[in-house]
Amino acid sequence: MEDTRDLAERTPRSERKRRDSFGMFDGYDSCSEESTSSSSSEDSEDEVVPSIPASLPIIKNNGQVYTYPDGKSGMATCEMCGMVGVRDAFYSKTKRFCSVSCSRSYSSNSKKASILARLQGKPPTKKAKVLQKQPLMAKLAAYAQYQASQQNQAKTKAVVPAESFDWGRYICSNNTVGAPVSCFKHAPMGTCWHDIEEGVRIEVLNSDTNLSTKVYWIAEIIKLAGFKALLRYEGFDNDTSRDFWCNLCIPEVHPVGWCASSGKPLVPPKSIQHKYSNWKAFLVKRLTGAKTLPPDFNTKVHENMQFPFKKLMRVEVVDKNYLCRTRVALVEQVIGGRLRLVYEESQDGSDDFWCHMYSPLIHNIGWSRSIGHRFKRSDITKKTEGQVDAPAPLFQKVKDVDQSGDWFRDGMKLEAIDPLNLSAICVATVRKVLADGYLMIGIDGSEAVDGSDWFCYHGTSPSIFPVGFCEINSIELTPPRGYTKLPFKWFDYLRETCSIAAPVRLFNKEVPNHGFRQGMKLEAVDLMEPRLVCVATVTRIVHRLLRIHFDGWEDEYDQWVDCESPDLYPVGWCQLTGYQLQPPASQSNREMPQSAPKQKKKAQQYKGQKKKSLLRMKEETAEVDEFTFSQGTSDQESNGSGSYYIKQEP
Questions:
Q1: Helical residues (DSSP H) of 513-625, grouped into ranges
Q2: pTM
Q3: Which of 257, 388, 453, 606 has CB 3.0 to 4.6 Å from 481, enough for a Cys bridge?
Q4: For 63-91, what is the mean pLDDT?
């Protein structure tokens, strides 16, 4: 973070002269906007390709808001289906459609629109001329069919446009805070955000002006919530009437001094234009000693928005229908580091799966064979042109473990987050020990005979816990399905099943200083429907474990998630990357399933006996197997520090 220097010293001496009556700060030239446009013979001559200014941060298309991180290049939006993806991977030279089918559908819809124009007495387009020989009744029938299809699409559409949710208003009205960007190391700028704080000054577009060209003014960060900041223009002092929220990573946000070096106009808002006669002196006084963004801030944002995975890369990913095995899938889209993977055998591309590129659910080709994991072989014999195996270094690394000595063994008992019901931590068993520290885990009482519902966790995974973890931390433990001796007691269960608990020393006890606090807002993936990213709240913290609540939904939809999960994102991540954000559910759309994005849990999963309250923390220590656990403290839960376990008997 650099101190703000005298702005007059940054201005060329030849340009230090008084501007016109608009009150422009001395030494700034008028802004010139450059835009580019392109056309292609693949598109009809009537279709005009809108120009995209390189500085334009947000593009609206089909009622949705998308961001172009670097202007013309970067991301693109299909004009037919609204799909967002990497521009280079889009169809046609103009990059207007994500596929050939969308291009043809768009052409077909254009013809129908031309029919409507003809019926309304408007001159037909060239596309519609081929239809002029059709009888009027045929045209009316075609138009009626088109209208019906549009109405049906509107009724069944479940996705709410991103622009319909206002994070700033939501945070202010609920008097809440957003989790800092520094809490999300996997997110763009997650490791570069430590210098961004309240009081920092930036140069941003001036929206309070009558000028036809883009002009800028200096604003102060009043409040931070993830990527978004509440800003106040310099000169308004304590007047909050013009405060506004802005995503700090959009291209129109710059450090102080950028206008001077770029020749852009710096103009005070018209509301306070006559408040000071000498704006230069005012700014020099206010900005002396103040902090601003690093000079390479925009460059870092651009670099952080580049992702190594590309379309048509082949990976191994968990089979969403059979958790015990993996399948080959192709990368179809990359949005903000999230991957839309299409299983290789999918004929129409509809059999897909969403996950982050750092997810523990995806691996390089050959991973399953190397560790002894189940794998479904593909029947595809001919690869699509352009396919390539994703390089192994692109995948998240796991901690090396020594399995030669004391390690997990088949039949050991533990507690684990149920991947089919992420609101529950269940009694579980190690069913098979794989290579490289991986384990196949089964939920007691609900396992299939053939083990098709076993799931793979690494031995250092933060989603598995030693026996007694839930009781110590007052978390409701889901007992085995059909187990009648309630309340559930681990000591009795181990004796009845002739089992032993996995040693405490084998579990991951590292608790990073993650920075999350109870009540913080964020954007979180609904892992039961992983294509959805929703408005969410941290409602509980147990060491490194976070309880995520989806705003507007019942507690049964909550999820236990690790603090370093790549499925958590700062406020404003969806706007920055162009991903669709699901706003809080209202009572009305909870009552109407067709408009509610979230779905009920799968029928085969078992949640155990529903209790009215969590298990109370006991005063005495509980002895389970040969290990003794101590009682957790409230400080450990509130600040995310400390250790799971205090004492372990030899």
A1: 573-577, 587-591
A2: 0.69
A3: 606
A4: 57
Q: Average pLDDT in the 326-346 region?
A: 95
pLDDT 10s digits, 386-397: 899 999 999 999
Q: Is-cis flag, bond preceding 269, omega within 30? A: no
Q: How many CB atoms lie within 10 A of CB 72?
A: 17
Rg (CA), the chain: 29
Q: Which amino acid is at 614?
A: L
- How far apart are the C-alpha atoms of 216 and 266, rounded to whole Å? 5
Per-residue pLDDT at 138: 42
Asked if the domains 7-32+169-304 and 313-394 are classified in one and the same CATH topology, the answer is yes
Q: What is the pLDDT of residues 263-285, one digit of tens each?
A: 999 999 999 999 999 999 999 99
| 147 vs 517 pLDDT, higher one | 517
Token duo for residue 366? 């050959």
Rounded distance between C-alpha atoms, residue 393 and residue 100, angstroms:
33
Please name the amino acid found at residue 571.
V
Do you find a cis peptide bond into 294, omega within 30 degrees of 0?
Answer: no
> 413-511 belongs to which CATH class?
mainly beta
Share of the chain above pLDDT 90, in %: 58
Which of 444, 446, 431, 440 is CA-nearest to residue 605? 446
Task: Domain 313-394: give its CATH code.
Answer: 2.30.30.140
Q: What values do phi and psi take at 542, rounded to 5?
A: -125, 95
**Res 16 pLDDT > 90:** no
DSSP tag of 300: H
Arithmetic mean of pLDDT, 174-180: 94
Instruction: Please state the domain extents for the chain.
Output: 7-32+169-304, 101-156, 313-394, 413-511
Q: How far apart are CA 296 and CA 646, in angstroms?
A: 46
Please name the helix (run of DSSP H) or strand (run of DSSP E) that holds residue 60, with its range, or none: strand 58-61
Interval 356-385: pLDDT, tens: 999 999 999 999 999 999 999 887 767 778
Class level of CATH domain 7-32+169-304: mainly beta
* Residue 435 phi, psi dihedral angles, 5° rounding: -80, 165
